[in-house]
Specification:
single chain
Length: about 525
Amino acid sequence: MTSFDAIVIGGGHNGLTAATLLARSGRKVVLVEASDTLGGAARSYTFHPGYSSPGLAHIVNRLHPEVASALSLESGSEAAAPTVVLSPTGRHAVLRGGYGEAIDGVSEDEARRFQDLRGKLIFQAAILKRFLKRRPPEIGEMALADFATLAGAGLGLLRKGREESRDFLRMLLMNVADIADEYLTDDRLKALLAFDATLGIHLGPRSPTSLLGLYYRLTGEMHGVTGAQVVAGAGGRSAAAAFENAATRAGVAIRTGVQVSRIIADRGCASGVVLSTGETLEAGAIVSAIHPKATFLALTDAAEIGTGFRRAIGNIRSKGNVAKLDLALDRPPNFPGVAAADLRGRLVIARSIDHVEEAFNPAKYGAFSSDPVMEITLPSLGDPSLAPAGGCTLSALVEFAPYALADGWEKGKPAFQKIVLETLESYAPGLGVSIVATSLMTPLDMEARYNLPGGHWHHGELQADQLLVNRPVNAASGYATPLRGLYLASAGSHPGGGISGLPGLLAARQVLSEKRA
């Protein structure tokens, strides 16, 4: 038996964040990762000889400045990547800066309307952001800092006046389609809002509360700019590698290619883990940075956590709805009407709100649309090491691809891939003949590759009933769990998914705040 002060399960960016901060506090920390490489869903992988993908997170737009500072992560100097909303006619709309600080390809009146809406959404998202960067309050046991956060949010609204306060309360649980229709007339801009609000979430733009998804996106920032984004790997820097380097510098002992088979617990207290090698590790604090369902339904003895808690964990809605496509190309694709410089940003295929809604509708019944919506990047343009000389990689997140496909993905995958490639060909003529290799991951594939129950990259739906004090469930919303000495630090914890590092940061702070740790 080997003893440590803390054991971290899972080497994704949140696990690496938690391990780094605990080690920097003077703890003796070991991190155990089942895969041979670190980074979780943000790690790159080779999908064809000479061609690599940056992973599921091909856009970075949430890295929290407190995390970057605490881990001494190098701050990149990349300019915010543009967003090109593709049009079948070649008349594309291009958003620049922090979520459309400037827009090309729309009328002056439409640009002004978008700026009005953008300002309102960013202000309202900032109210919610106050609650995302700290541990959620305990119902009935709110601390002084919790009241200060509430008071700060209230004062922020009051400064804007009664009308803005009423509008915030009116909009909070609305659907994104209604808000877009209130402000905008251009289908391309409305489609982008609808797409961004529903990406990775099992909702359509006309579903109640879907505006929350857009708020969540706009709580993110890059290099201090709200709503800004960079393409993963731009400048040859990997987000996963940056977190790994921070952990190594902090002195974290890293074990890869080894699984945790069981969390050791007795009389409601966790004290160590058993590895797939048979080795036992002991520690006063166990930090699980993997999916909450994997933690409690696969690694923990049911008798130690209680039936009610186990049932609540089992009820977490966590069925993925997005597929990931990687293409190896023998040359960069041509998207008519898109400037060469803008190909280094993201390209979105979504023609209108109705297009996004109609793409979602079949997913409610376990089917996929024949007219999907998607987000595209060309990662090798920013990081030439991802493709051979002259070649190019294309990465796409395709909505909506239900985890539980009615006909099964073994049968459905070839048909879905054909639809996706035909859709891409219609916007990038000649793409098909340049394809060297194709790799398509469904939510079922993501479940297997990343140990993600349900194949949901957020480790659970980002919907009103699974946020804040209910993430992942109320009894474990503050990172500590009913099993003393066991803590949660994955995207399944508050505040949620995306490469922010906040779940890892806040979980580590919780561990350090408790005397028993």
